[in-house]
């Protein structure tokens, strides 16, 4: 403060003194004192500033105004120049923004002695006395020219309620040059004035003439309330108001709900409906009216959004919205196929709105008739069930359609929508009777929306053709797999399932796991595909695939033509479904009323169903919407439905509605699933019949058993003995030509048709397995060429397993063969050595002894091999084969057949001890034994070797017996029992 | 009694008019409604400097609020299984 001039110091001192004098505050540190000081200074400064800026007028105003203000009373403070005055001024100063730079001219303030009284007391007092004022005394005169211009140039749009928003005459003039000439003209020059007088005053125009209304106190609540506010609150500001009548409000409400876009009372901005703020009626306070209208606006917005969705899907959006919002819901370019699920949904919505609009029109007509009093609250009361339904619809629409991101594929959209509906039904269903109507509405909506899906399913399981151009069905055909490919059964279709929890898009490919893809994937996470199809999904897939396969097989011509003729009168799945639901409803209603027995009721419902069917057969087009309309009405107007369909006069049981709805899933189970089930059985039955009859599936299975499992004993005997002979002769047998010739010869004699299919080739095996001579056989691979449709069942994987069993059998056969052909030359030796020396005799005896031991060992070995052979050939292959044949007869579909076949092979594989674990013991045993037998035969009859062989055999035998006994005791392998017993017997004799 | 109250009301109304003029002169940007609220607050003893700070802060905040955008929608994804 040191640099302050003496003048400033002096003036500060003086100011402080002044404040002290004026306020009486002695303490300079007092907050109020500081406040006053600050104000004084800034006041001086503002004044000085204004003077310096030579805004003398402003400066003068400032001085005068502050003076005046400080001397005026404040609302809640007594006295003048109080702290409050100063703090208010201080606040304004703090908020002030460059006052010197703004234009300011002081406005002359009216010094009114009394506030303007808007209430027309004269009229109030004269009420009932003035008779001849005319209906519209306030209507101003219209100049002739203006009205003429307006009349001829006012366009009326279809979407428009006829209300032009806030048009000033200036705008009208501008528009007049651009707009298309009129849809209607009224000939008389003052037609507009006439219309205004007789139809409606243009309440939408700003400063519209006030309409007359009763001056009774009740119809002037607004004025009374305003007056009250004005009198009690000095800060109350009366606003500009647009007066309307309740009738106008009702009509605009009706228009809003019927989907008209332009209104006066309700305004739309970017799809949001709001209430114009200054609309009032005379008999309600503004807030009251506003709260009611805002309630309506919410529904209006729901209607608007639904309507826009309908327009977009149907493709006639009359008003092109702003880019980005326009094509969000599947309104696509013309080239893209239509998205039928949305179309069906829209169709159902549209049907609902048609009936809703009928109701609205009826109300409006009553309003026009003027026969009875229509109030806004009465209208709302009357519409309340509809409004509740609109709320439900909008909710479903929001979650099912609007919240889906734009780039989502159709399959996700469709299943999401269906799921949303399904969930909503179940959700409302659980509330019980409170939401009966909502459930009814949603159910009718659902039955409509599900129609494309059912049609796709229908087309697929009846004609074998998955027709889904918009890719909306949860199952889609992989285009790159032809029908006559062997992978057809496994890799043709893709099942989409929607999961809302996982973010990224995933594709799981499990071609190897067969067609049970759904089960595979559901293990890891919760998948929510279209839930209503879930219980029958497998049947649908099976039926569809079977049908497609069947279509591509050469069916009998007669059957084809028969099918074609039947197809004409066939009903679609959707129709069948609707009919079942109807008949179910009928029987439901009737049973509690009549108290009949279960049997009677079913019979009666059957008769009724027949009559309904007959009625429907009369209709040429099965997809007649009339049916669906009736069906939808069935829920909404139960009594109406009864008249239409059942014709009887049953007492309406209220609970019957809820019964049907509460058991929604049950309804599906009894009305939809059986049809699919029936179709599935039919399709798969046909396929199985065709495969077994025309394609000799069973014969091929038998052939596999014949050759691979050696069931054709004599044929295969010819083949393998030829090989064994060669081995015996120590000749080379591993020549494809030799092997094939042998095979052809053997097979050609008895099964000439199979000889071309069978072939043998050699496959080198790894050196590690080539330990024993018996392993040499493992290079053999038998192959059987299976023709196309049958190779779905007998795949190359199956053949591999067959081949393994075949090789094992071959090895056993060979062991048996070598033991059988084993001859000991010892006997000859003894004969030759007759009459020799004692030593020779001694040697001979030793040799004989050895030979005897060898013979014993051979017999033991033979016993062992024979029991093994018996076990496998009879106990396993034969009995399992019988079981298999039995199961094949009972197989319902191809998938089941494939599974049965696989299971059969796996069982054989297991029981032939080829499974890795068991193989370890047993393979070693057999091979070592047979190898021993071979080496025996080679005549190296050394005692040590015999000893070794005996002990080896004993060990192996014992080992095997123990293992088998253990297994049998555990009871896990009952089939092993016989083998264990026979081996045990052989062991005890040792 | 009623007329006295009425007179008082009128006086207050005039005061407010004067105040509005001052407010306009100082270019505070307050309209009648906000001005009357401010008057009530000041009468209740609110510190005018604090009040002015609050008003400025609120104006700034509402400006920046208009610029903000909506958060994006959650995603729905799909899975496929070959059969």
TrEMBL record, chain A:
Any Pfam family the entry gives: GCP_N_terminal
Disordered: annotated segments: 129-178, 315-336
Listed Acidic residues bias regions: 141-152
CDD domains, per the entry: GCP5_NTD
Residue ranges constituting the Gamma tubulin complex component C-terminal domain according to the UniProt record: 697-982
Annotated keywords: Cytoplasm, Cytoskeleton, Microtubule
Chief location: cytoplasm
Family indicated by similarity: Belongs to the TUBGCP family.
Subunit structure comment from the entry: Component of the gamma-tubulin ring complex (gTuRC) consisting of TUBGCP2, TUBGCP3, TUBGCP4, TUBGCP5 and TUBGCP6 and gamma-tubulin TUBG1 or TUBG2. TUBGCP2, TUBGCP3, TUBGCP4, TUBGCP5 and TUBGCP6 assemble in a 5:5:2:1:1 stoichiometry; each is associated with a gamma-tubulin, thereby arranging 14 gamma-tubulins in a helical manner. Gamma-tubulin at the first position is blocked by TUBGCP3 at the last position, allowing 13 protafilaments to grow into a microtubule.
Protein name as annotated: Gamma-tubulin complex component
Source organism (scientific name): Maylandia zebra (zebra mbuna)
From TrEMBL, chain B:
A single cellular component GO annotation: gamma-tubulin ring complex
Pfam families in alphabetical order: MOZART1 (PF12554)
UniProt keyword Iron, yes or no: no
Cell compartments where the protein resides: Cytoplasm, Cytoskeleton, Microtubule organizing center
Keywords in alphabetical order: Cytoplasm, Cytoskeleton
GO biological process, one term: microtubule nucleation by interphase microtubule organizing center
Keyword Cytoplasm attributed: yes
InterPro entries found in the cross-reference section: MZT1
Family assignment from sequence similarity: Belongs to the MOZART1 family.
Record protein name field: Mitotic spindle organizing protein 1
Source organism (scientific name): Maylandia zebra (zebra mbuna)
